[in-house]
Write a structure and sequence with these properties.
The structure is a homotrimer of 139-residue chains. The first copy, chain A, contains three helices and eight strands, in the order E-E-H-E-E-H-H-E-E-E-E. With 139 residues, chain A is an alpha+beta fold. In chain A, strand 5 and strand 6 form a beta hairpin. The relative contact order of chain A is 0.39.
Chain lengths: 139, 139, 139
């Protein structure tokens, strides 16, 4: 049984949905030591989020951005507007998508389905680098 | 302390929201060995999701389907349409509901509230069987 | 390595979004014994939810309530109306936000980002006290 924890800093990305599976996995060499376990990825921000979705087509990621912008528009009856028009929608989108992922580990690898990839959802126009706390536990 | 992991295959279900608590619990006999722990259920797909909600009224599950279809309609400015009109809405719904559940275990049972049940949300018209990775950890 | 589990009862709050970080942390003295670990918070209800978001401005929490009421309105084609106009929207909102949070523990504290706080989202007009099962695991 072992625990490990490390912080991963994702470089700044433009507003939108970005596939970061390889970047995350490469930062977690401890994965290969676990036969069974869980990997917990936690984003330490309130205007970006983590989710799992289709890892093949860039169209899917573009359509995510389009739908979320329509569902949580900048033009709404927001009162919290001090930090820019993209700020309050970013907070709501982050709550809808969530700030963490818990992923099963099997035989030293993330047990993702064939089509599953890790999305970093950047909801701000200029969000800057994003910090992830990765906590692994298993045996 | 112990870890266990198994794959559960849920039989194909029609598009909609389905209560699967009993099916999941029956597939996890290891639950009864844990006084305190966590059960992690992970669906290895990007167009179906897992959530917890009201376990009594079929009306609630029908209303879920109605609301999600209205909020994430097939008739939208999607560009990813190659796999059918139900595909891209399925991806967005899956992200909104989430691909995993982490549930507390107490005294050999899932510590769900009285009204909580596990929902399989099938977002495709014909999604086929759905694979769940169940990881249990506790003492 | 250690496991602990306890139930926390949050006092009744009005419909809306409430910051409960301090109340949760104060109820978990076991946090300080863990160098690395995870805290799992689970709400045993289907019409209230837990999420993480901005911990400073009450405007953000008011805007959450406004947006969710617009996105999941009481005036919709609901069939499950027996328990009041606020009931079915509460179930959908609870599924969108989620019923649990898994938070990293580092050096005896929750490793939240500077701006992250724990929100109790009360979706009923009179939801009553809300029960949380908190499960901690770490070393």
């Amino acid at each position: 049984m072992s625990w490990s924890q490390r912080e991963i800093t994702l470089r700044p990305r433009p507003r939108g949905v970005h596939l970061v599976t390889a970047e995350i996995v490469d930062a977690l060499p401890e994965l290969k030591d676990l036969d069974i376990g869980l990997a917990h990825l936690f984003i330490r921000h309130t205007s970006a989020s983590l989710t799992l979705n289709e890892n093949a087509s860039p169209d899917v990621r573009r359509d995510f951005e389009t739908w979320f912008n329509a569902a949580v528009p900048e033009d709404f009856a927001w009162t919290h507007t001090l930090e820019g028009a993209d700020d309050m929608p970013a907070h709501v989108k982050a709550a809808l998508m969530g700030s963490s992922l818990t992923l099963p580990i099997s035989n030293g690898r993330l047990a993702l389905g064939t089509w599953q990839g890790i999305y970093l959802c950047e909801h701000r126009d200029s969000g800057g680098p994003r910090r992830i706390v990765a906590t692994l536990n298993g045996e």
